[in-house]
Amino acid sequence: MPRRSSVYSLALVILLIWCAYPVAPALARQVPPGVVPTGQAATAGPWQMQVVTVQTGDAAATAITAASPANPAPPDGEQYVVVEITATNGSDRPQDLDPADFALIGDGWVGRASSLVAPEPSLMATVEPGAAVTGFVALSGPDSDAALVLLYDSVTLGGNWADALFALADGAVPPEAPGAAAPTDAGTAVGEAVAIGDPVATAEWQVSVAEVVVGDPVYDLYPDGDYRTTALGRNQAGDLGDADGDGAAGWVAVRVAVTYTGTVATGAYLSADAFTLAQQDGGPVPNGLFLTAPAPAAEGWYAPGQSREGWLVFEIQIAWDSDAMRFQADATDADRRYLLIY
Question: What is the pLDDT of residues 206-238, one digit of tens each?
């Protein structure tokens, strides 16, 4: 039977499987000035880059289906967007391009490059100095007529000096971010953890617990064929008494309601490890593990003002001595909040 790995090993496995979703920047980037109009090229760091074609709606869905029979239909309320891009390396060294370098921005939407198989040729290459490459990126966006903007923000080039915005329709601009919501002082200590259903609010996030599932029923949250966590075995999920003596006492799944209240127009990424089971001293549970969550997962990109609900899954440790979960948006963020899950 597969054994549990550390948080870091699990994260590495997920990275290798879902290569279109690399570890996101810890802090959301500011929008670079200006939007490149449709049909025009622009300098993006070492690149001279241009959007060549854009497919949306039925045309994009047809292209995605033709690219691979494994590609699913777009989820309700979403559409696929296929963007053809040409990029010339103007630097004196090889440069990498990857679908993960791109995001789709719309009203209440930030969508990174998806795990879809893009039409060939996919825009994934190491480009030599002076050479050019043309390829496709497959993204998902809202199923609406809202004008969309493509953001290039390389996962390998540091900072935002190379970032660029490309209009995918005439006159498209990023939506204005709403004003930041005022943080509250709720849940600032583990002894003052908020009740299920009550929110905590930091400078950029509002979070509340919507539902908690414990033990064997957590296993059933995963659909048949999703073995990313269930490969560990149903007995691991329901071992609330630590019958096997390994220090773990089953699984707990927490459905959280999350709103990004920050003002960065390109949105922000919320990682699953922003949440941990908390000890009475406010610190994380020793050897605490989070497991890959079922869909919809709380982890992901959030547009300004966007709200959604998603799952987190933890392995319960016998050493856990409270009923609280800690939220800390980023490892460098001193603002920690606590929410009861029992």
Answer: 999 999 999 999 999 998 888 889 898 999 998
CA separation for the pair 325, 288 (Å, rounded): 11
- Using alpha carbons only, how large is the chain's radius of gyration in Å? 21
Q: Classify the phi-psi angles of 100: left when phi > 0, otherwise alpha if psi is within -120 to 50, otherwise beta.
A: alpha
- Cβ count within 10 A of residue 92: 8
CA atoms within 13 A on the CB side of 256: 33
Higher per-residue pLDDT: 132 or 74: 132
Q: Does one domain contain both 40 and 105?
A: yes
Q: Which domain holds residue 103?
A: 32-167
Report which of 309, 199, 319 is spatially closest to residue 254, judged by C-alpha positions.
309
What is the torsion angle, in degrees rounded to the nearest 10, for the CA atoms of residue 126, residue 131, residue 135 and residue 140? 70
Confirm whether 1 is domain-assigned: no
What number of residues does the chain have? Answer: 342
pLDDT digits (tens, 9 = 90+) for 53-95: 999 999 999 999 999 988 888 888 888 999 999 999 999 999 9
In a domain, 275, yes or no: yes
* Side-chain half-sphere exposure of 119, counting CA atoms within 13 A: 20
